[in-house]
Design a protein that fits this description.
alpha+beta, four-stranded mixed beta sheet
Length: about 150
């Protein structure tokens, strides 16, 4: 079975009771909200990854104000007749503050819409599980940077 390791970095940006999210199509094409961020390029520092990815997906430049934690998940993916893939994801979750730029949608990327969403509305949004994990890290700020019971 093919093994795949993906390391990524994401930012929680909250202001005035709203969180910055991006929308991405799921595997089945259904739009779902995601935390801005994405995969590291070879040789790239996770801090630089999150700054680059947030700007690409939302148009905003951010200042990283802290590392909230690291989330890891391991799963076997099966798609149609393709061989299964043993996937391990490692995700750095940062807190970010908007310091420039203007809100815009990504062009020719993995997301199609960027928007501020009310924190109270998040539970009603169609979203990836990382949104909830990142918000818990932001709210709880565990000293270890890990949510022991967060499993996907």
């Amino acid at each position: 079975m093919r093994q795949k390791l993906r390391v990524a970095a994401y930012a929680i940006c909250v202001r005035d009771g709203q969180i910055l999210l991006a929308r991405s199509p799921a595997r089945d094409g259904t739009p779902e909200w995601v935390v801005p961020g994405g995969g590291m390029e070879h040789g790239e520092d996770p801090h630089d990854t999150v700054v680059r990815e947030v700007e690409e997906e939302t148009g905003y430049r951010i200042e990283v104000t802290g590392l909230l934690g690291v989330d890891s998940f391991h799963r076997v993916f099966r798609e149609g007749l393709r061989p299964p893939v043993d996937h391990h994801g490692v995700r750095f979750v940062y807190e970010g503050r908007i310091v420039g730029g203007e809100l815009r949608n990504e062009v020719n990327g993995s997301t199609d819409l960027a928007a501020w969403q009310d924190l109270d509305a998040v539970p009603r949004l169609v979203r990836v599980p990382l949104v909830d994990i990142a918000l818990r890290l932001w709210r709880e700020r565990p000293a270890t940077g890990r949510l022991a019971d967060a499993s996907q």
